[in-house]
Amino acid sequence: MNLLVVGASYRTAPVATLERLAVAPADLTRTLDRLVAQPYVGEAVVVSTCNRVEVYAAVSGFHGGLGDICAVLAEQAGCPPGELANHLYVHYDGAAVDHVFRVAAGLDSMVVGEAQILGQLRDAYHWATGADSAGRLLHELMQQALRVGKRAHTETGIDRAGQSVVSAALDLAAGHADGDLAGRSALVVGAGAMGALAVATLSRLGAGPLTVTNRGAERAVRLAGTYGANAVPIAELPTLLSTVDIVVAATAATEPVLTSEVVTRALTGRPADRGPLVLLDLAVPRDVGPGVAELPGVEVIDIDRLAATLADGPAAADAAEVARIVAGEVESFLTWLRGADVAPTVAALRSRAEDVVAAELRRLAQRRPDLTDDQRAEVAHTVHRVVQRLLHSPTVRVRQLAAEPGGDQYAALLRELFDLQVPQTAPVDTVPDVAPPVDTVPDAVPPVDPSTPTTGGDR
Asked: Which residues contact 7 (CB under 8 A, 6 or more apart)?
């Protein structure tokens, strides 16, 4: 099996496309099941955030795996594959490992160095574990990616630049509040992870009074209580909008929550001299409906605007150090991967040798029934020892060679020379707490050289 990453992110797709690709938590298991039901996909993890939708997969063939994954993504987006072609990136084998590790380290985020993506990767991994769609290869990849992300934040100063998307958006909002959010009334719509982060950040910045609303009132009450904020039923949203300066919208709703009708009603009761109503839309799909940004007295900051205006470069030395860590970890993982690839072949070779020895000992027992038990045991011991000594050096050497670039050729050569049948997939490790076959790439996706990586913050 080989690693394949197919996805779209804020770098390659507008928010409208990411909205169509986004996989809601309620649909994750179904999507994972759909992926691993494809003929070329053996394992799958789906990462879906406001800034990226990516499939990490173990596939039995590059072109077939790419075709399978593109078909599932097109189905998710409700469009022909051709509409996605210009927005997708593809990474294979070593390039796939490099991409996943860079994502975990925050180097591929909208706000470089932000740590929130680590939690999102962990959530994606646990979803895949629960759906039984992650096998031995993706278990190892995800565990190592999470470790690499932690290393990046522990051993470098990347955190100095790694503010969250919420913090970056609030910095933009502060520009509409004379550069200071202290004392500014704020409303957070949504009590999930993003909503909690928004409440915590606003509280730290001194914004207030602070109000939280959510479709599930109980979660809003719990979140508000933690930070001394007010919890208000979502039915009062139009009234709330007329009394605040800043709104952070981060719900998991599939339709806009802040529609033109709702915002227009709020503006009717808003004092003309209060200043603009700043709406921070950090949700995918979007919480702010079409046309709201054109309303007078409203300033909308969404993911598109954030990406276009955010200075996302950390100190050069910190970025370079993280990149160095990632490069070393990628090479270590590929060395492990090459060794893991040859292990089943070596095991199959030893099993073949044992089968041959057992067959010959049975023939000896038939031809020489006069041998005593001790004599047969001595012969068996001697033959086994000869076979083990003959196999020792070549199997040790092939493991060493397999750890080098191009080492997979040695395992293939062993299989060919000894006509070995090796299973395509390895058994799944225990997880710690922490359509017909497609032979070619769909016309919608341009051919990709499997050995060359293509161009590729998260909520």
From this structure: 47, 52, 53, 54, 55, 88, 89, 456
Over the stretch 346-368, which tens digit does the pLDDT of each residue have? 788 888 888 888 998 899 989 99
The band of 444, judged by pLDDT with boundaries at 50, 70 and 90, is very low
What's the CA gap between 163 and 33, in Å, rounded?
35
From the list 50, 188, 189, 252, the catalytic residue is: 50
* Confidence at residue 139, expressed as pLDDT on a 0 to 100 scale: 94
Between CA 93 and CA 2 the distance in angstroms is 6
> 144-148: long-range contacts at Cβ-Cβ below 8 A with a sequence spacing of 24 or more?
144/101, 144/329, 144/333, 145/100, 145/101, 145/103, 145/104, 145/121, 146/104, 146/118, 146/121, 146/122, 146/434, 148/101, 148/104, 148/105, 148/325, 148/326, 148/329
Q: In which band, very low, low, confident or very high, does the pLDDT at 343 lie, cut at 50, 70 and 90? A: confident
- 378 neighbors 447 (Cβ within 8 angstroms): no
* CA gap 67, 60 in Å, rounded: 12
Instruction: Kindly report the number of other CB atoms within 10 A of residue 315's CB atom.
Output: 14
pTM: 0.63
> In 78-163, which residue ranges form alpha helices assigned H by DSSP?
81-84, 94-104, 116-130, 136-155
Q: How far apart are CA 140 and CA 145, in angstroms?
A: 8
Per-residue pLDDT reduced to its tens digit, 37-62: 999 999 999 999 888 999 999 999 99
Q: How far apart are CA 3 and CA 202, in angstroms?
A: 41
Tell me if residue 50 is catalytic: yes
- Angle between helix axes 193-204 and 165-174 (nearest 10 degrees) is 50
Cβ-count burial 271-291 (b if 16+ within 10 Å, e if not): eeeeeebbbbbbbbbbbbbee
